[in-house]
Amino acid sequence: MADTLSNRPALPPEIARRRTFAIISHPDAGKTTLTEKFLLFGGAIQMAGQVRAKGEARRTRSDFMKMEQERGISVSASAMSFDFGQYRFNLVDTPGHSDFSEDTYRTLTAVDAAIMVIDGAKGVESQTRKLFEVCRLRDLPILTFCNKMDRESRDTFEIIDEIQENLAIDVAPASWPIGMGRDFVGCYDLLNDRLDLMDRADRNRVAESIRIAGLDDPKLADHVPADLLAKFREEIEMARALLPAFDRQSFLEGHMTPIWFGSAINSFGVRELMSGMGDYGPEPQPQKAAEREIEPEEAKVAGFVFKVQANMDPKHRDRVAFVRLASGHFERGMKLLHVRSKKPMAISNPVLFLAADRELAEEAWAGDIIGIPNHGQLRIGDALTEGESLRFTGIPSFAPELLQTVRAGDPMKAKHLEKALMQFAEEGAAKVFKPQIGSGYIVGVVGALQFEVLASRIEQEYQLPVRFEPTQFTSARWVTGPKADVEKFVNANKGHIAHDHDGDIVYLTRLQWDIDRILRDHPELKLSATKEMMV
C-alpha cells in the first residue's frame, strides 16, 4: 500500500477531506457511546443519549431497531455522515455482538480505516480479535481507543503489551493517562505536547486543554497531584524508551496503531481521537473490482452495495441499499447502470444518514456512503456505474453455522412468511434455503441471537408470529462443478439438496463426515463454505 500512497495524484479537495471508517469492538466496550460522542462533537446531535439511560429523551441515535433499544446492543450496522473541522466523516457503526459478525465483515469492505475500542479493564477480547483479523485481511489502518479509564483499569503498559502480542501490531501511544479509576485526572497528549484534563461534573462538556512546554513545565504541578505526576513522568520516560514513536506511513500500511486513552461516557479523549482520524487517517482509497482497480479521482461514478436494510421506516415497506461510492461526483437524479440486471436506474431520492434522521443527498463524492431506497432491485454486492460493467470483489458471504426450520403460527399465512424470508435473505440477515423435498424453509444464521431478532422482526414488520424448530441438518455448503455432474449428484442426494434465494444449489448435511465422503467420491465437485456476493 505504501507505493500507492506516494505515487497517487492528489485527490480533488472534496474527496481528499473525506474519512470513511468503522468502529469495531467487543460488546460492552463502549462503542455505541463513542459513536454518540462523535456525533455530538460533529454537531450532528445536541445531546448524546446513553445506551441505558431512562426515558425517551435519551434514546441513542444510532440504534434504531426496537430490539437494539431494549437490549442496549447494536445489531445492524448504520452509517452516519457529519463534518468535523475541515473533514467530512462517514462513520459506519458495526454490530459489536458476535452473533452478527457477517454484517460487520461486509461493512469493513466499505471503509478505509477502523477505530478499535478496547475496555481498559478487560483489554483485548475474543470478538475484538476476530474483527481485527478481518481488518488485517484488508490491510485497514487502525486507530485504537482505550475506553473506561475513569474506572479501575489495568496497567497502561500491560494493555499495550497485550495489543502488541495478541494482534501482532506495533502500538504507538498518542496520549498517556494520568492516574486511573477514581484518581484519573486526564491525559497527556504526546502528539501535541499538552495536558488534557477531564471534567467529571458535566459529561457532555468538552475537556479543557492546557498548553504546556513539554514534560518539565512547572505548570503541570498546578493541575496534577504530586504523587501522580511523579509516577506519570517515570512512565513517560519508559514509554519513550520502549515504545515506537508514531509513524504515519507505518500506520497507513496497517503495521502500527496509535492508541488514545479516555472515557467516552465523560466525553474525554474523544476529540483527540477524532482529530487523529482527520489528520492522520487515510483519504478514500482505490476499490478492487474483477476487471480493474477503481481510483477515487476518476470522473465517472461507480459504487457498490455492501448492506441492505429493510423496513427502516416502519410506515413504508422500504428497503434501503447502502452504497459506498468508489469514484466520481454523484448528483441526485443521475441515471446509473445496475450492472447485474443491465438496466439503467434513475437515482431520484438518495439519502444521507445523520444517525436516525435522513436527508436527501443532493450530491456525494467518492468515499461517501449513500442510501438508495428501492423495492428489492438492489442486493448486496451489486455494482452501480455510469455504464461500465464492473464487478466489485471481496464481499464475503459465509456458510451459516446454525440451521433451523421455520413455521408460520398460522398455516394460511405461508405466502406472507415466504415474502418476509426472501426479504431477510436479500438483506443478508440470514440464509434461506428451500429444500427440494418437503415443505417449509430452512433458515441459516451465524449466531443464535439472530433467530430471536428474525422472529421479533417478522412479528413486528409482518404481524406474523413464527416459530423456529431444530432441524436434522447442521451445516450447508454451496455446490459447484460441471453441469452434468452437479445434476447427477443432485438426483442421487435429493433429501440433502436445497436452493438458496439466488437459486444456487446447496448441500445440507449433518456431519463433517458427509462432506469428506462427497469430496472423496466426487472429486469433480466443489463444496464451499463461502460464496462471494457476486452479481
Provide a quick synopsis of the model.
The chain has 535 residues and is of the alpha+beta class. The chain contains 15 helices and 31 strands.
Keywords, separated by commas or semicolons:
single chain; 535 residues; alpha+beta; eight-stranded antiparallel sheet; seven-stranded mixed sheet; 15 helices; 31 strands; 27% helix; globular; disordered N terminus
Cα(first) to Cα(last) distance is 28 Å
- How large is the count of helical segments? 15
> Can you tell me the residue ranges where pLDDT is under 50 for at least 5 consecutive residues?
1-5, 46-65, 67-77
Helix proportion: 25-40%
In round numbers, the mean pLDDT is 78
Class by alpha and beta content? alpha+beta
Query: How many E-type strands?
Result: 31
- Biggest sheet strand line-up: 27-24-26-25-29-30-28-31
Most strands sheet: 8 strands, antiparallel
Computed Rg: 25 Å
Shape: globular
Which percent band covers the strand fraction? 25-35%
Describe this structure in words.
The chain has 15 helices and 31 strands. Strand 14 and strand 15 form a beta hairpin. With 535 residues, it is an alpha+beta fold. The strands form seven sheets. An eight-stranded antiparallel sheet has the order 27-24-26-25-29-30-28-31. The chain has a seven-stranded mixed sheet with strand order 2-3-1-4-5-11-6, sandwiched between helices. 47% of the residues are buried. The protein is globular, with a radius of gyration of 25 Å. The N terminus is likely disordered.
